[in-house]
Amino acid sequence: MSLDKTYRQVPGTTIFDAEQSAKGYHLNQFCMSLMTATNRERYLADERAYLDEWPLTEVQKQALLDRDLNTAIEHGGNIYFLSKWGATLGLSFQQMAGSMTGMSEAEYRDMMLHGGRAIEGNRIADQVREAHHASAVLPAPTEHAHISGAVFTSHVPAIGVAWDQHKTEEPYWKQVFDGYEYSKQWERENLPDVVFLVYNDHATAFDQRVIPTFVLGTGASYPAADEGYGPRPVPGVEGDPELAAHIAHSLIREDFDLTLVNEMTVDHGLTVPLTLMFGDVEKWPCKVIPFHVNVVQYPVPSGARCFALGQALRRAIESYDRPVNVQVWGTGGMSHQLQGPRAGLINREWDNRFLDALVDDPATLSQVPHLEYVEEAGSEGIELVMWFIARGALADVDDSGTIEVKHRFYHVPASNTAVGHLILENHPRATSPAGKE
Ligand code: DHB
Ligand code: FE
């Protein structure tokens, strides 16, 4: 599946997509800085000096100094951001729009008064459309990204603390870390280029001001968060903006309404699984695309929705035309309740049936309603819905391949939680239908 960007053929029009957004990131953030009176005053006092404080290209700076909005937009500016700059200079949307058309302000206003620009002559020209269709049938690239495996693991913060404070040999913690010895070895032998890491932020990067259901990290890097006890002494995470932008495009086109975030910190939900799988490192050995799922405030997404998202994620990854090896991780769970008189609830039987069914019949398991998680696995056991994103991304789900269970571990307790862990390898058949369109 190549991504459809036919919108680029519409004449006199620039669609603000991931590519434009990457080009214009600092330009647009510069515009946002003009939302305070003090910054507007400083900008108007010396435009050049203020612009020089921002990592803009010379072309972007000159475009602003020349009031050349077409160039600013070509180089990643977006009109809603630029309207802050325009307002600073006393320009209305109509003045800004008109300035891009080659007409005088009076001519433009007059055109609008007479019904606006006509659609006739402003559609994609037939020969442009034909040339575009012809180029779209060029041979598809032969190499694509693939999903080599899925990892499922709890992400208890106390595990990170125990690791950071060198308590791994204490009997309480040794029993936990022993369950991940195989996993570290497996990662050394099967190191991916990218981990697509599904986790939930725990009131760290997102608080009650913004509650997105699904967040895809499209940024270049993510520092480890300070969750109230200082940031963990682990490296920051390097993202993969290009693959993430491709996934964003593909998933949103499949009607998954994602929130895209370029800058955020990442908490124990993401860093503890990295420690468990990679151990002590100066730099994480691969890129990580963070994917946050709201499981803090109800309504939270269903297991079935996450399972469908995982399937769409595989189509997205397999249509990326670079030979990138991707693992998908699902984190959180298993049974735990961190609140109220029922705190400490653990349900071994339910957890182990969940692990069995996750391997053997994830489609049926994904139908389990929220109530069952809360009642059987404790209020925070709801984190398990995130595992379905990783599970849905494997090839057996649509019978285009098989999976292999490499490792399974279950242990009670780590802090308040039952630790569950699975490693599944993905073996798509060579003729996998996904990624071939
Ligand atoms: C614990 C487990 C979690 O998954 C979490 O996010 C916070 C705390 C715990 O068991 O202490
Ligand atoms: Fe958690």
CATH topology of the largest domain: Protocatechuate 4,5-dioxygenase, Chain B
Q: Topology as H/E string?
A: HHHHHHHHHHEHHHEEEEHEHEHEHHHHEE
- Broad CATH class of the largest domain: Alpha Beta
Taking all Cα atoms into account, the compactness measure Rg is 25 Å
Shape: globular
Tell me the structural class.
alpha/beta
Q: What is the number of independent domains?
A: 2
**How many helical stretches?**
20
Q: How helix-rich are the residues, as a percent range?
A: 40-55%
Q: List the ligand species.
A: 3,4-dihydroxybenzoic acid, fe (iii) ion
Strand percent estimate: 5-15%
Poorly predicted sequence stretches spanning 5 or more consecutive residues: 432-437
Q: Mind telling me the CATH superfamily name of the largest domain?
A: LigB-like
Mean pLDDT: 95
Number of strand elements: 10
The major pleated sheet works out as: 8 strands, mixed
Give a quick precis of the structure.
Keywords: Dioxygenase, Oxidoreductase. This is Gallate dioxygenase. The chain has 20 helices and 10 strands.
Kindly describe this structure.
This protein has 437 residues and is of the alpha/beta class. It folds into two domains: 6-137, Dioxygenase LigAB, LigA subunit (Protocatechuate 4,5-dioxygenase, Chain A), CATH 1.10.700.10; 146-435, Protocatechuate 4,5-dioxygenase, Chain B (3-Layer(aba) Sandwich). The protein has helices at residues 18-23, 25-33, 37-45, 47-51, 58-65, 69-74, 79-88, 93-99, 105-113, 126-136, 157-164, 171-178, 181-189, 241-253, 268-278, 303-318, 348-360, 362-365, 370-377, 387-392, and strands at residues 146-153, 194-199, 214-217, 221-222, 237-238, 259-261, 287-293, 325-331, 401-414, 417-428. Strands 6-3-7-2-8-1-10-9 form an eight-stranded mixed β-sheet, with helices on both faces. A hairpin with a 2-residue loop joins strand 9 (401-414) and strand 10 (417-428). Helix 2 (25-33) packs parallel to helix 7 (79-88), helix 11 (157-164) crosses helix 15 (268-278) and helix 14 packs across helix 16. The longest helix has 16 residues, at 303-318. The structure holds 3,4-dihydroxybenzoic acid and fe (iii) ion. 3,4-dihydroxybenzoic acid binds next to helix 11. This is Gallate dioxygenase. InterPro entries: LigA_sf, PCA_LigA, Xdiol_dOase_LigA, Xdiol_dOase_suB. Residues 27-112 form the Extradiol ring-cleavage dioxygenase LigAB LigA subunit domain. Pfam families: LigA, LigB. GO terms for molecular function: ferrous iron binding; oxidoreductase activity, acting on single donors with incorporation of molecular oxygen, incorporation of two atoms of oxygen.
